[in-house]
Design goal:
about 25% helix, about 260 residues, alpha/beta, nine-stranded mixed β-sheet
């Protein structure tokens, strides 16, 4: 079985820079990590590989340093990795991102199953998976809770439809998105990390895609524009108390800030 996992490198915390003109996160120098939801997608793929055999490939879009996310996926057990990177993709909204990823998937080759996490912790749109499936022309099932049976041409799974859980059998190829309830991700292995040091992360640029029209990617290909984005504002005011009845003063302060309330 050929399984593709979409992963993304996201900022380590909320203290990141933002381009004042475009409203886009400055990713080049930000501390990063592998998107937490993608860990569940990758673990799902690795377990399916253990059950049904096959190859797990990961794909990410980002600047050159996003290769680190692929290296982490190698340390967890992924077999191959592709980095979609080009200045033409900078500033992509969710639609332009999904289109670029779908073009990259077509360039890589055919897959039986595409797995992605519920959402990313930087954009939080939860739309990339479903939009990719539209561009790829394959069915999409979101909020998958359990994968029960893998047959040569189909997969049987259970997904959360909001008011109920639905069991469905879907013909391959199919794209699914998973949430954190589906499994517990394994830790990266030191041995696998060492063994995969020489493994090549293949780069994909605009020139490798079937559609090379720059107006379909990046800011030009993004119908939505960010009006304003900013890191959370933090309260930095401090007070130093060193005399008097400190306990009573602290109690009054907490009541004033509504951290404490009297029980009726």
């Amino acid at each position: 079985m050929e399984i593709l996992v979409l992963i993304k490198q996201v900022p380590l915390d909320s203290n990141v820079g933002v381009d004042p003109k475009t409203g886009v996160i400055k990713r080049e120098n930000a501390e990063t990590k592998l998107n937490p939801y993608d860990l569940f997608a990758l673990e799902t793929a690795l377990r399916l590989k253990e059950l049904a055999g096959g190859i797990v490939t990961v794909l990410t879009m980002g600047p050159p340093q996003a290769e680190a996310a692929i290296r982490e996926a190698f340390a967890m057990g992924a077999d191959a990795g592709y980095l979609l990177t080009d200045r033409a993709f900078a500033g992509s909204d969710v639609l332009a991102t999904s289109y670029a990823l779908s073009q990259a998937i077509k360039a890589i080759g055919a897959f039986d199953l595409v797995v992605c996490g519920k959402q990313t912790t930087d954009g939080d749109t939860a739309q990339v998976g479903s939009e990719c499936s539209e561009f790829l022309g394959v069915p999409c099932l979101a909020n998958v809770q359990t994968i029960e049976v893998i047959d040569p041409g189909a997969v049987t799974l259970v997904y959360d439809a909001g008011n109920s859980f639905i069991r469905a059998t879907v013909q391959l190829p199919v794209l699914i998105s998973v949430d954190k309830d589906i499994c517990q991700p394994r830790l990266p292995s030191w041995n696998r990390m060492q063994a995969s040091k020489g493994r090549v992360v293949k780069k994909i640029t605009l020139d490798d895609l079937a559609d090379k029209n720059r107006s379909h990617y990046g800011l030009d290909g993004s119908p939505t524009q960010v009006v304003r984005i900013f890191p959370p504002e933090h309260e930095t005011t401090t007070e130093l108390w060193d005399d008097g009845d400190l306990a009573s003063r602290l109690f009054s302060f907490l009541q004033e800030k509504k951290f404490l309330q009297e029980l009726a």
